[in-house]
Structure formats: structure tokens, C-alpha cells
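FORM 7B: Structural annotation worksheet

SECTION A. Query
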Amino acid sequence: MSTTIRLSMDNGHHGPLLLWKVTRRSDQHPPSIYQPYGITFHDENIVLAEGFWPFSRLQVFSGRGRSVCSIGQGAVLPFGVAVNSDGNIVTTDHSDRTVKVFDVCGEQLLAWKPAAFEWPTGIAVDECGRHYILDWSLGTVNIHAESGERLKEFRSGSADGPTYSCPAYVAVDSRKRIIVSDVFDRSVKIFDESGRLISRIESGAEKEKVLDPRGVCVDEQSNIVVADWGKNLVKLYSFDGRWIRDLLTRDDGIANPRAIAIRGSSIAIAEQKLNESPSLKLYG
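SECTION B. Predicted structure
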């Protein structure tokens, strides 16, 4: 059984509150959570991409933190995960270096051609059904149709900075701005839909900067939310990259957040701490 903890309301706290968490216990086999990389909401449920074989899978949790089902265990090596316009689950697969599509019952509906990418990481889907896939090895952002047809590709390196990049996570807002976390120079980059870099959240110790950004997502106002693995923070920025505030901190129980997703007032976070068990948390 997973460990689920529900916390009571703290009247002195003005940010999101921890509703529950699921952790991996040392006596569990197979583990309840193992190496989480990507996360997304699917209606009221949460889909977690766990990418370490032989326990690699997409695991679906209910809104109360119960494991509902596992998808593709041992047959898929997922990193990023999103939901497409048909309500199906799409994931980048390191095993076949492609994108695979599953329905909520776990049936594989579609796989793009094998070796479509060198090392696919983050994935996002916009309201028009276009898929945005990052290629870590090539340092590219790839835009595809749902069928897998490639529509556009551009490099995620910077014209005025390092041209090399290791893009990890991606999000797309309502104006087709593409937000990418780059593990190489530890920044968050904001591109327009043509691939032009329009803004960047720099790396640094200052409060408005990031130290080691991983997961990114956008809220209903197109604000950018960043899981800063290095600072143990979840940070909130405006659509153009201006720091607003730290949304969640160590005081809220945040430790090495890796992946993040938002649905309304709910925030789902997958954490992977150094030399400790991973966890899945829901704030709201």
C-alpha cells in the first residue's frame, strides 16, 4: 500500500497546502514509485511517468492518492507525459526513442516511427493538438502533428549564450509561447511559436533566478511555474519570465522537485531526492 498523508488547514499559511503524498517504502516490492520523471493531470487523476527499467511504467493515481492502474510496465521507458486532444495519454519513450499513445485503460493506440528522436525528454500538447517534443541529445524543440508528422524543429540553444543545450521539460501557453527548461546552462527559456527566443530566466543564487530548473508548466493566467530542483523551490513567474514569488518552499515540505503539473488550484509534484525515496505530492 502507498503511504498517504492528509494535512489540515493552517490559517497562517497563504500558499497552497499539502493535501497528500505518496512515498516509496523500503519494504515494498515492486516499489510504489520508482524514478519519477514526468507528470500530468488526466481529468481528476494524475499520471506519473516512471522511467527506470524493470519498473518503468505510466502509473495513474486518483485525486485522493490511490494507485488506479499501471500502463506499459516494462514495455515503455517513459520520460515526459501529457494528454492529447482526444483525452489519451502520450509519452516520450526512451526504449524506442519515439512517442507512444495509450488510452486510459492502458491499451497502446499508436506509436510514432522508432528512432524518431535521439533522446526524447519533455512533451507538451497545445489546444490545437500539436505536440512539442524535446530532444536532449540534439538540443532541439520538435513540433509534430498528432500523427507524428514533423511540422517544425528549432534549436533550444541561445544566440547570445551557449549554443549547446540539454532541454529537459517543456510547456506551452495559450499564446503558443514555448517554455523550456535547459539542464545544460540551468536556465528556463521562452520561445515564440516560430522558435525565436523572447525571454530567459537566468541561473543564479538571487531570488528571481533559478539554480537547477526541471519541470515547467503554466497556469490558467499563462504564468510560468518552475520546479527548481537545486533550490528546493517551486517558483512562479509571469508569462514573460518576471519573478513573482516562491510558490512552495522547504517550509511546505518541498525537497528536490523534479516534475510538476497544474490543474486549476491543484499542483501535483514528483520529487526525487538525493539518496532518498521519491515521492508524489498534491497541493491545493
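SECTION C. Observations
The chain is about 0% helix and 45% strand. The CA atoms of residues 77 and 149 lie 22 Å apart.

SECTION D. Sign-off
Analyst initials: ____
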